[in-house]
Amino acid sequence: MSDSLLLCTDLDRTLLPNGDAPESPRARELFSLLCAQPLVTVVYVTGRDAARVEAARQQYGLPVPDYVVADVGSTIMADDGVRWQAWDDHIAGDWHGLGSVGVQEIVGALPGLARQDDSRQGRFKSSYEVGTPGDLQAVATAVAERLRDEGLIAAVVASHDEVADVGLIDVLPGSAGKGPAIEFLRRHLGLGSADTVFAGDSGNDLDVLAGPLPAVLVANAASVVREQAVREAAILGHADLLYLAGGGVLGLNGNYAAGILEGVLHYHPAWAKVLEEAT
């Protein structure tokens, strides 16, 4: 482990306090303080596209990230906003030259699936809603089977938007996703797994929450996500790499940015000095 920290966080209802749970008043201020440290590299890892990331950053007064992993891990950008062509090249072959429109032509007519508007689509992300959340897993399975029958290598990411109470399905190239994109970036930066912390809250974070990188589930995450993350991490042998924020650290409640900070201090307690001096 080095002194460097690759801090990767989801946005909606992880860093952004846009859920029903209360936010600790100073949590985002302390998060920004941590992000300003020279040894910290900040990555926003989100389902949003670049424009919606920037809108959220300005709305909530967030620090400018060093990198953005957008579109559920199908896009990587540096702080100049330019897509990483190397990542595009890495994942493109899974869809055999098709883009998101081509994927929609294959799966769009499946029962229970409604295409999201154009602002939610990406070059390598085809996104849908499932109006009845109870049908989400069955519809996701049908999507995966249809794509497999067409010879495409695809990742089908299912999650539940608790605020809108709808199911969400994102179809990505099989090599894409939040976890693979973080790994690609981590290796590019020459940092170790132990130098990395990921924070998330929802179903589309599960590949990282249950994966081989140190991860934290913020306290405001839904109980069903918590149970699934704990179960999958145990099955994969990564139980010791999943921290469940519960509050009480730095006098904060563990929700949103407070949970991110709690997780960082769990894995990297040396950063406590910087944060405690500001409290």
Q: Would you mind describing this structure in some detail?
A:
This protein has a 7-stranded mixed β-sheet with strand order 4-3-2-1-9-10-11, sandwiched between helices. Strands 5-6-8-7 form a 4-stranded antiparallel β-sheet. It has 2 domains: 5-74 and 177-276, HAD superfamily/HAD-like (Rossmann fold); 93-173, Alpha-Beta Complex (Hypothetical Protein Ta0175, Chain: A, domain 2). It starts with a strand and ends with a helix. By secondary structure, it is an alpha/beta fold. It has helices at 27-35, 50-60, 85-92, 100-107, 136-149, 178-189, 206-209, 223-235, 257-267, 272-276, and strands at 5-9, 40-45, 67-70, 75-78, 114-115, 126-130, 154-161, 166-173, 196-200, 215-217, 242-244. The mean pLDDT is 95. 34% of the residues lie in helices and 19% in strands.
List keywords for this structure.
about 280 residues; Rossmann fold; globular; alpha/beta; Hypothetical Protein Ta0175, Chain: A, domain 2; 10 helices; 7-stranded mixed β-sheet; 4-stranded antiparallel β-sheet
Brief account:
By secondary structure, the chain is of the alpha/beta class. The protein has 10 helices and 11 strands. The protein folds into 2 domains: 5-74 and 177-276, Rossmann fold (3-Layer(aba) Sandwich), CATH 3.40.50; 93-173, Hypothetical Protein Ta0175, Chain: A, domain 2.
